[in-house]
Specification:
Residues 32-446 form the Ammonium transporter AmtB-like domain. This protein has 485 residues and is mainly α. 66% of the residues lie in helices and 1% in strands.
C-alpha cells in the first residue's frame, strides 16, 4: 500500500497555520533586535533595580524596597495594555494625551507598528511598557524606607495614568511638543519626570525615621554592584532600541552610551578622591547612573567627543548638587529623597536634554528623522553654519519641554498624593518604621535564625563540643556557649 503523507498532512497544516508566517513588511533583524532591546530594558528593572534597591537600603528595608519595584513592574504592564499605551501613543484626545483603549487584540499587536518601523506593533507595545515600568520604579527610589506599601499600590496605576502617559504623548506621541523637542530615548519623558515626581512625592509622604535618616548604610554593597551592572548593561537596549531598527544610529547610540557612562563614573570618582580623599564605590555607582541618564536624550544624535564631554559634565554637576548643594540647602534638607533620585535623574536628565540641544548633529538628525526633520540643529553646529538663531531656538524648545514636564509632575503627583492620603496613610505607622520588613511583610532579607530564638548548633559545632578538654586546649578551640543567640 502506497502512502502519500502530503495528502493527509497538508490539509491539516493549512487549517491551523497562518498563511503568512512573516509578512513582507516584517524585517526579521529589526524584529529580533527590538525584542532583545525590550528585554534588556526589562532586565534593568527586574532584576536590576530590584537588586539595587534591596541592597542600597538598610537591612530592615531590603524586602520592602525590592517588593516596591517588583510590584510596580507587574502593575504597570497590566495597566499599560488595558488603557495606558493608547493614552501615550494612540489617537489624540487632547493636545497632551491620547484616548484610553486596549492594546490587546491581534489586530493591534500583529499589525505593522508604523509606516517608519518594519516590525509588529507587539514589539513597540512591549518596549514602551518597559520604559514606563522603569520610570515608575526609578521614582520609588525617593520613597524607600517609609511609604505605606498599600498606598504605593494605589499610587502606581494613578501616576502612570495621569503623569507618565501625558509626558510620553506630549513629546513622543502626537502631542503639541512632539515636533520641536529633542528627546531621543527619554531624558525628559523618563528621567526628569521620575526625578521631579519622586522628590514631590517624598515631600508629601514625609521623611524616614530620624534614626534612619542619620544612619542608613547599604546592607550588601556587592549585591548593589550586581544590580548596578544590570542597569548599565541593560542601557544597551534602553538607548539602542529607541530607533526601532538595526542601523547606524543604533550602533552609535550604544557606543555613546557606554562612553559617556564610563567618563561620568571616572569624573565622579575623581571628585570623591580629591574632596574626601577616598574612592567610594557607592559614589561611583551614582556617577554611572548620572552618565547613563545624561546621554539618553541625545545618545544617537551626538558625536563621541560630545558624549565624552557630556559624561564629564554629568559626573560633576550632579555631584555638586548632591554632595555640596544638597547638604547646604534648607530646601533639599526639608525633603527626604532616600536615594537622591532628584540629583541622579532630574538634574542629570535636564542637563542631558539641554546638552542634546547644544550638540545634536544635523547629519544624525536627518538620518534618524528624515530629510524634513523638524529638530535642531544643535547650538554648536548652528554657530558654524552661521545660523545661530536656529540653535538658540532649539535650546529654548528644550527648556520649554523641561518646564512642562517639571510643572506637570509637581502638580499631578501632588494631587495624586493628596487623593491617596484621603483613602489611607501615605506613610507607615511609627512602630512599623522601627521594625521594617518583618512588621510590613512578615519577611526578612537575611534570616540566619528567627527573632528571639536560640541559634541552632550546626553538626560541626555539636561534634566539636564532644572533643575532650585536653584536645580542645591543644587546638585552641574555645569552650562552646550553647546559649549563644
Amino acid at each position: 500500500m502506497n502512502f502519500n503523507s502530503s495528502e493527509y498532512v497538508s490539509p491539516f497544516l493549512d487549517s491551523v497555520l497562518p498563511t503568512e508566517s512573516s509578512p513582507d513588511w516584517n524585517n526579521k533583524a529589526d524584529n529580533a533586535w527590538q525584542l532583545t532591546a525590550a528585554t534588556l530594558v526589562g532586565l534593568q528593572t527586574v532584576p536590576g533595580l530590584v537588586i539595587l534597591y534591596g541592597s542600597m537600603v538598610k537591612k530592615k528595608w531590603a524586602v520592602n524596597s525590592a517588593f516596591m519595584a517588583l510590584y510596580a513592574f507587574a502593575a504597570v504592564l497590566v495597566c499599560w495594555v488595558l488603557w495606558a499605551h493608547e493614552m501615550a501613543f494612540g489617537t489624540k484626545l487632547l493636545p497632551f494625551v491620547g484616548k484610553p483603549n486596549f492594546a490587546l487584540t491581534q489586530k493591534i499587536l500583529l499589525a505593522k507598528a508604523s509606516t517608519n518601523y518594519y516590525l509588529p506593533m507587539a514589539d513597540f507595545v512591549y518596549y514602551q511598557f518597559a520604559f514606563a515600568a522603569i520610570t515608575v520604579v526609578l521614582l520609588a527610589g525617593s520613597l524607600l524606607g517609609r511609604m505605606n506599601f498599600y498606598a504605593w499600590m494605589l499610587f502606581v496605576p494613578m501616576w502612570l495614568t495621569f503623569s507618565y502617559t501625558i509626558g510620553a504623548f506630549t513629546i513622543w506621541g502626537n502631542g503639541f511638543l512632539q515636533t520641536i523637542i529633542i528627546d531621543y530615548a527619554g531624558g525628559f519623558v523618563i528621567h526628569l519626570s521620575s526625578g521631579v515626581a519622586g522628590f514631590t512625592a517624598a515631600y508629601w509622604v514625609g521623611p524616614r525615621s530620624s534614626e534612619d535618616r542619620q544612619n542608613f548604610p547599604p546592607n550588601n554593597i556587592a549585591h548593589m554592584l550586581g544590580g548596578a551592572g544590570f542597569l548599565w548593561m541593560g542601557w544597551t537596549g534602553f538607548n539602542g532600541g529607541a530607533p526601532f531598527q538595526v542601523g547606524e544610529i543604533t550602533s552609535l547610540a550604544i557606543f555613546n552610551t557606554h562612553l559617556c557612562t564610563a567618563t561620568s563614573l571616572l569624573v565622579w570618582l575623581a571628585l570623591d578622591m580629591v574632596v574626601y580623599h577616598k574612592g567610594s564605590l557607592i559614589g561611583s555607582v551614582q556617577g554611572m547612573i548620572t552618565g547613563l541618564v545624561c546621554i539618553t536624550p541625545g545618545a544617537g544624535l551626538v558625536d563621541p567627543w560630545a558624549a565624552i564631554l557630556m559624561g564629564a559634565l554629568s559626573g560633576s554637576i550632579p555631584w555638586y548638587t548632591m554632595m555640596v548643594l544638597h547638604k547646604k540647602s534648607p530646601f533639599f534638607q526639608s525633603v527626604d529623597d532616600t536615594l537622591g533620585v532628584f540629583h541622579t535623574h532630574a538634574v542629570a536628565g535636564i542637563l542631558g536634554g539641554i546638552l542634546s540641544g547644544v550638540f545634536a548633529k544635523p547629519k544624525l538628525l536627518r538620518i534618524l528623522y528624515g530629510p524634513e526633520m523638524p529638530y535642531g540643529p544643535g547650538l554648536f553646529y548652528s554657530y558654524f553654519d552661521g545660523n545661530m538663531g536656529h540653535g538658540i531656538r532649539q535650546i529654548l524648545y528644550q527648556l520649554l519641554g523641561a518646564t512642562f514636564i517639571t510643572l506637570w509632575n509637581v502638580v499631578v503627583t501632588s494631587l495624586i498624593c493628596i487623593l491617596v492620603s484621603h483613602i489611607m496613610d501615605l506613610r507607615m505607622q511609627e512602630q512599623d518604621l522601627e521594625v521594617g520588613d518583618d512588621a510590613i511583610h512578615g519577611e526578612e532579607a537575611y534570616v540566619l535564625w528567627g527573632d528571639g530564638e536560640k541559634m541552632r548548633l550546626s553538626l560541626h559545632v555539636q561534634i566539636t563540643s564532644t572533643i575532650p578538654s585536653i584536645s580542645r586546649q591543644r587546638h585552641s578551640i574555645p569552650p562552646i556557649d550553647k546559649n549563644v543567640e
